[in-house]
Specification:
Elements lengths: L1 H15 L8 H39 L2 H38 L4 H68 L14 H40 L8 H23 L7 H23 L6 H26 L4 H9 L5 H46 L2 H20 L8 H15 L6 H23 L12 H42 L12 H14 L2 H17 L2 H37 L9 H43 L2
Helix pairs in contact: 1-3, 1-4, 2-3, 2-5, 2-15, 3-4, 4-5, 4-6, 4-11, 4-14, 4-15, 4-18, 5-10, 5-11, 5-13, 6-7, 7-8, 8-10, 8-13, 9-10, 9-17, 10-13, 10-17, 11-12, 13-17, 13-18, 14-15, 14-16, 14-17, 14-18, 16-18, 17-18
Length: 652
């Protein structure tokens, strides 16, 4: 609660100290797009919440189950605790960008402090409020009542992450079409403005909500582990203590970065992450040394440390292939001079290499923690992986906003050389944590989901306490259902993306034909109308996938058994491991190469290699920035709905 209060104070301070000067035109257009997107999302989300509540209430009435009633209450509470930070983030979006842009005209240090404070405000608000809500729900309803809370978090995250990535992807691909009749791709083109808006939404709200849903998966997995072994109530507080230490370590890391700014801003965010990890491991080691939770404290501590080292290791793997200052990105950038195919293949090779190493790390962490402390070790290693969530959100918000400011000033001329230098410096600081991308988010989602799946399997197969998974006929049937749904989901998303691109393209052509003087740059595009069309296309494409995600697991549990449900979840998880992480890094590498060329490196943006990298980037972004996050969110959504179905129908 204290940490969420700190975040709230920082947010309040920056909202109410903002200047009320007239906003630049482009920023005003972006704000119009924000409002339309959130209005449309709120309307769609309200209908889904009403439908989900009616469905759960109907099941509670028919089955006369008090557990469902508890989960309805926790579901509604979860909507509150995930909705409040999202609305606060929207308020910060409305005020921060113009004030930060204005501050960069004079000095860089204060702008860095402002951006760092705002990033911390969002990170502590998101995870502080979420942790507070989880604490209250577990206190009143226990671990079974937590399912409704997690369902709410995943539902909102699904809307923010999946919808924002599709919104941004469709706008970016529309912008880069081959336009005729002299239609430009600058701020006069609605697709250009919506692409900037969508990237901001997907990289801040989408990424944060994705990470928060993984956070709750790991937390519930640890509670399940405690419940399965029947520990005393004092020991059941261990997950809460570990999460509190992780949040406190993040706060100390933030304080260290503020102190470092007095002397230098070099490697600011990277140092903050490493310092937070060091403080976290030190505090947890002292906790296990002085407080005997179990007779085997050392294996539990080592399991937690394995999780922390696992996420750091994956971060280093991603950094080795996507860091703009290292050879792989340089090779991708230079290979673009020979066409679209060379950077395409080079980045794919690096992504497969990275995925192979990630799976090896996953096996070592999961296997090592299980050998150390059985399934309780798996749960604690997951908490170790998630211990860096706060600083990852902080770093990602900082990086995304600095990138957003840099992109804005490619359309809004900078007034002085100092203004340009300050903006470039802030952008380079954000690039220092380019490792925090969709690849890292995918790995965290994969790890937290398999941890929860393992413990759910044990809960419903008590004879599998040693995790001996028998692939009987029922489980094989479930694997078939899961594989089928995975590829149907990809087909629906791809088809919807194509429709969204066509719809936005038609709207862009209509505006340039019907709006007087728009082509001559003496009028502004109707961003409200364009954003409304784009938002409706985006949310409408989730109708059929959403129905299948909700009803599919329920029907499998009703007509078959737990083995079929678990088999379907296992196949979805395996396919997500094989695709999402690779695709995410695939796109991140091409995007980094694109931004290096855009900033003037390796011959800059004036030659053919820039056009080639744009083509390669657009192709890979479909997989990495659109399909990969959607796969991860689908995997989480199916998992949590399956848990509800199993608890309600098979064990009422």
């Amino acid at each position: 609660m204290t940490l969420s209060g700190i975040g709230g104070f920082l947010a309040y301070r920056h909202i109410h100290q903002s200047r009320q000067d007239r906003l630049p035109t482009l920023i005003q257009l972006l704000q119009d797009g924000y409002r339309v997107f959130f209005k449309e999302m709120a309307r769609k989300l309200a209908w889904v919440v009403i439908g989900m509540t009616i469905l759960l209430a109907g099941l509670a009435y028919v089955l006369e189950s008090s557990i469902i009633v508890y989960n309805i209450i926790s579901f509604l509470l979860g909507l509150v605790f995930i909705g409040l930070p999202s609305l606060t983030a929207l308020s910060l979006i409305m005020t921060l960008v113009p004030n930060l842009s204005d501050l960069l005209k004079r000095q860089n240090k204060k702008s860095t402090i402002l951006l760092l404070n705002t990033s911390a405000a969002l990170a502590f608000l998101f995870l502080g409020l979420l942790f507070t809500g989880a604490l209250l729900v577990d206190w009143y309803f226990g671990v079974v009542g937590m399912i409704g809370f997690v369902l709410a978090v995943v539902l909102v995250a699904f809307f923010l992450r999946s919808a924002a990535t599709l919104y941004q992807g469709a706008a970016q691909l529309t912008r880069d079409l081959r336009w005729k009749d002299g239609i430009p791709v600058d701020e006069r083109n609605p697709a250009t403005v919506l692409a900037m808006l969508g990237r901001y939404l997907s990289e801040i709200l989408g990424f944060s909500s994705d990470l928060m849903s993984s956070y709750m998966f790991g937390f519930v997995a640890s509670l399940f582990a405690m419940d399965l072994i029947g520990v005393h109530s004092e020991v059941q507080s261990l997950p809460f203590i570990l999460i509190s230490i992780a949040l406190g370590s993040a706060l100390l890391g933030f304080g260290m970065s503020r102190f470092q700014l007095r002397f230098t801003s070099q490697n600011l965010l990277v140092n903050m992450i490493y310092f937070s990890v060091l403080i976290n491991i030190t505090a947890v080691s002292l906790l296990f040394y002085f407080i005997p939770f179990f007779d085997y404290n050392l294996p539990l501590f080592l399991s937690y440390v394995l999780g922390v080292l696992g996420i750091v290791g994956v971060g280093l793997i991603i950094d080795s292939v996507s860091n703009p200052h290292k050879n792989p990105i340089k090779e991708i950038s230079l290979s673009a001079q020979f066409g679209i195919v060379p950077p395409f293949l080079k980045s794919y090779s690096n992504a497969c290499y990275s995925n192979g190493l990630m799976i090896l790390v996953l096996i070592l962490v999961m296997g090592g923690s299980y050998m150390l402390a059985s399934f309780l070790g798996i749960a604690l290693s997951t908490l170790g992986v998630l211990s860096v969530s706060t600083v990852l959100i902080l770093g990602k918000v900082f990086s995304a906003i600095s990138k957003h400011i840099y992109t804005l000033h490619s359309f809004i001329p900078m007034e002085t050389n100092q203004h340009e230098s300050n903006t470039q410096t802030l952008y380079q600081q954000g690039l220092g944590v380019s490792v925090i991308g969709n690849g890292l988010s995918a790995m965290i989602g994969i790890f937290s989901t398999i941890s929860l799946l393992t413990l759910v399997y044990i809960a419903f197969h008590q004879d599998a306490i040693n995790i001996r998974i028998v692939l009987d006929t029922w489980m094989l049937l479930g694997i078939g259902f899961g594989v089928s749904f995975f590829y149907l989901y990809l087909s629906w998303i791809s088809h919807g993306l194509n429709r969204s691109i066509r719809g936005l393209k038609d709207e862009v052509i209509r505006q340039f034909k019907e709006l007087p003087f728009l082509l001559e740059n003496n009028a502004h595009a109707d961003i409200k109308k364009a954003s409304q069309i784009q938002s409706r296309y985006t949310f409408d494409l989730f109708r059929l996938p959403g129905i299948v995600i909700v009803l599919g697991p329920i029907l499998l549990a009703y007509f078959f058994n737990a083995s079929v449900v678990f088999g379907s979840l296992l196949s979805v998880w395996i396919l997500a491991v094989c695709n999402s992480y690779t695709w995410a890094n695939y796109a991140d590498m091409n995007d980094t190469a694109f931004r290096l060329l855009l900033s003037g490196r390796y011959s800059g943006s004036e030659f053919d290699n820039f056009k080639h990298i744009v083509g390669s980037r657009n192709i890979t972004s479909i997989f990495g920035n659109i399909l990969a996050p959607n796969i991860i969110m689908m995997m989480k959504a199916v998992t949590i709905v399956s848990m509800v179905a199993l608890i309600v129908l098979l064990y009422p």
